[in-house]
Amino acid sequence: MTDSASQRGIRSAQLGILVNTGLAIVKFIAGLVGNAYALVADAVESTADVLSSTVVWGGLRVAARNPDASYPFGYGKAEPLAAAVVSLMLLGAAVGIAIEAAGEMRTPHHTPAPWTLAVLVAVVAVKWVLSRRVRAVGSAIGSTAVRADAWHHLSDAVTSTAAFIGISIALVGGPGWESADDWAALLAAGVIFFNGVNMLRPALWEIMDRTPGADVIEPVRRAAEGVPGVLATEKLAVRKTGMSYRVTIHVQADGGMSLDDAHVLSGRVKGAIRAANPKVQSVLVHMEPFERGGTGRNAP
Question: Kind and range of the H or E element at 247?
Answer without folding.
Answer: strand 244-253
